[in-house]
Amino acid sequence: MTGTAPTSASEGVAGPPGPPGPGATEAPGRRADEVAFPTRRSYHDLVASYKASGFEQLSDLTAVDYLTHPGRALPPGVEAERFEVVANLLSLSLRRRVRVRVQVPEDDPVVDTLWDLYPGAEAMEREVFDLLGVRFDGHPDLTRILMPEDWEGHPLRKDYGVGRVPVQFKEAPGPR
Amino acid sequence: MSDGFDPSSTDPVGGVRRAPRAPVAETSEGAQELGTRSATPSEELAREVGAAVLRIPEGGVVDAGDIDVERPSDETMIINMGPQHPSTHGVLRLMLELDGETVLRTKPVIGYLHTGMEKTAEELTYVQGATNVTRMDYLSPLNNELVFSMATEALLGVELPPRATWIRMLFSELQRISSHLMWMATNGMDLGSTSMMIYGFREREMVLAFFEKTTGLRMNHDYIRPGGVAADLPDGWEDDVEVICDTVLERTYEYDELLTGQPIFRERMEGVGSISAEEAIALSLTGPILRSTGVAWDLRRTMPYLEYTKLDFDVVVGTYGDNFDRYAVRLNEIRESIGLVRQIAERMPPGDYRVQDRKVTPPPRARIDESMEALIHHFKIFTEGFRVPEGEVYVAIESPRGEIGCYLVSDGTSKPYRMHIRGPSFVNLQALPTLLRGGLIADAVATISSVDPVMGEVDR
Q: Taking the model in full, what pTM does it have?
């Protein structure tokens, strides 16, 4: 397991974290969202502790492939990996959002599922699996959701080229 | 890669590969489809019948082994509905397990409209980006533009002039009216009320005509852009807006007579497709579906953006979370939006409709003829675009369908490194197994309609 970098002090498993992490920008006048950087091992526990402290809903779950942008700003102690799974939690009672960003290495792109905490994660995690190829351990039905079942590759990865439509009136053979 | 795969069909640039064509299997989505009960693992089965959601509020964590799902092997039948079905609002495909006429399990199969818009966004500059996102939720395109523009502005750190903000609010509310009218129309049609379909489209046409007058287009406007809006309101816009408000408000009372008080309509809507507040929150549902369960969660009120704190409006909630409550929430939201449009029109501040920052918005056309610098700025913005500082941001607003969010990552160039849209329809579709379970197949059409999915946004 490579994602064992220690979490920064204020963003441990137990309590709600402190100020937004570096690189987080917020609209002027808006209160900044909190950002937490757990390790892969503490990811599920951290989200569970957030849920217990009043974050009832998972607004959004997505991922980013940082292949061509490795030098992004991260708090000290967090080791940058190729993939980053980003879960946006929402507390309806506290009217607050928190963003949980977990680093996922390229050679073992697996994180724990949030489906057992938030059933709404089901389709979102399938989308991340389909488009970025990050697998979710414990997900009930991890199949492709947007792409056809026989598709090869994961289109939102940065090393996946953009498709081109062949031009009819040139002789160049197209991809299809 | 073996049988029949032609290496010459591989794109040399990026490796866009397609699997060898297998004529028989071409229409099959394999594991994405609904399987027989014996072939489905218990976690998945629990999800398909909606049982996994029910367990959440008590225990906090689902243990799939605890969930008892009966496994009757015979007497049930799996049928396919869509994607070419007139009542699925586009290309939604549902697979249903039926016991007689009762729906036991549901699985939406989506992706038939997937065009890779998030990938496309990485190839477009921020200036072009609004043109891309506006095509996602094609029934409320201005909300898509708004959330993308707000995310870009959050990264840029620009402050908008007040008139730009208020024009945005005006269009956001008009869009809510037109989108809900469209929903009333199609929902009426799904229940056999063809007159409602015609009336809904007739009223929506008024709003679209005003959009066309202002933005030049009826849909996919690219009107709200990073830095403000594309053009100022046309002369006499107050009168147009006034006519829309008066007419639509009056017509909503006609809808009351046509539908709300109509026994057949109520019979088909009340108590059908119910969902509880706990289930709705657990499934990440937002918008009218969440509010129909009695949760007063509306981002305009609870996490205000633009200038909604300065306006007076009610958050409409239901009680039972059934089809009728969702209908009533939307109908009354039209009325609330009309009130909001009136307030905005009354208080529309004068001034600039976009931020006067030459690094973000182009100079006025007249300046280009006289100023070399203006010409350079114009050229730079429309070729290279503007650079956005490094960072990441999540911005969410209340679209007619729920929370539409934009997660934007910038690497400091003029194109987004990653742009993700949290489509409310995509998430809301997860409610279908819970909504349809135990209901009749004849009510399924009405229930699908009450979720109000827009497939362009589901599949993106």
A: 0.84
